[in-house]
């Protein structure tokens, strides 16, 4: 029975998939609209900056269309926000942990989106390497501490400790 239950959970459910896509489209649309309004940019201005039609951008904002990565990139440029932010909101990329360094890269308008992505990849690779080295060093330190505790415990059980 357990295998039947897990098999049922793995079955493709078109209604659930359609609902998930619709929710993602609405979420990114609402986010784009809120960013546009806070930037005080009209729908027409953003459509022009992004190189998409006014009706298409309106459909994106209302959650009727889910934009491609290319369109999101153009919208990001039009809004002067990071494409990565829009990709995460649209479910194209996984969210990365917050970091002041990452935020500084993303906020820098003097470098291109591609340059930002390259810097972030290099930065993340350094962080992973340092985390791995730190874990190895911690394991080595933990081993040293364990050995030291064994020596100390061994000293406590020797003949000197049995004296009154």
From TrEMBL:
UniProt xrefs under SMART domains: HTH_XRE
Domain of life: Bacteria
InterPro entries given in the database record: Cro/C1-type_HTH (IPR001387), Lambda_DNA-bd_dom_sf (IPR010982), TransReg_Diox_bact_type (IPR050807)
Keyword terms: DNA-binding
Residue stretches making up the HTH cro/C1-type domain: 32-86
Protein's name in the database: Helix-turn-helix transcriptional regulator
Source organism per UniProt: Gordonia hydrophobica
Taxonomic lineage of the native organism: Bacteria, Bacillati, Actinomycetota, Actinomycetes, Mycobacteriales
């Amino acid at each position: 029975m357990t295998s039947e239950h897990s098999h049922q959970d793995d079955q493709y459910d078109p209604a659930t998939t359609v609902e998930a896509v619709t929710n993602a489209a609405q979420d990114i649309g609402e986010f784009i609209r809120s960013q546009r309004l806070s930037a005080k940019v009209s729908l027409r201005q953003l459509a022009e900056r992004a190189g998409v039609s006014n009706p298409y951008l309106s459909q994106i904002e209302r959650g009727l269309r889910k934009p491609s990565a290319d369109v999101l990139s153009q919208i990001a440029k039009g809004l002067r926000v990071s494409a990565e932010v829009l990709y995460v909101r649209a479910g194209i990329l996984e969210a990365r942990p917050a970091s002041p360094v990452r935020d500084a890269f993303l906020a820098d308008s003097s470098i291109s989106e591609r340059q930002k992505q390259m810097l972030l990849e290099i930065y993340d690779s350094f962080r992973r390497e340092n985390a791995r080295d730190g874990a190895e060093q911690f394991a080595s330190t933990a081993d040293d501490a364990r050995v030291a505790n064994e020596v100390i415990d061994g000293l406590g059980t020797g003949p000197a400790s049995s004296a009154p």
